[in-house]
Amino acid sequence: MKLGILGMGCYLPKNEIDNDFLHKEVGLEKGPDWVNSRLGIYRRFSVLTKDYIVKTKNQNPSQGMAHARAHGETPVTMGVKAAKEALKMAGVDPEKVGMVIANSDTPFDTIPATANLVAKGLGVRSGANCDVNCACSSFAKHMQILSDMRPERVPEFVLCVQTACYTVRTDYSPHSVDAYIFGDGACAQVLSTRHQGRLTVEPMIFGTDPDAAESILVDIAGHVVQDGRMVREFSVRKTCEMYEHIAGAKELYADEVYTVAHQANYVMQNSVLHHLSLPEDKHLRNVHLQGNIAAAGCPSAICQNLDRLHRGDKLVYAVLGAGLAWGGGYMEAN
Question: 319 CB contacts (<8 Å, ≥6 apart)?
Answer without folding.
Answer: 136, 137, 139, 140, 261, 262, 295, 298, 326, 327, 328
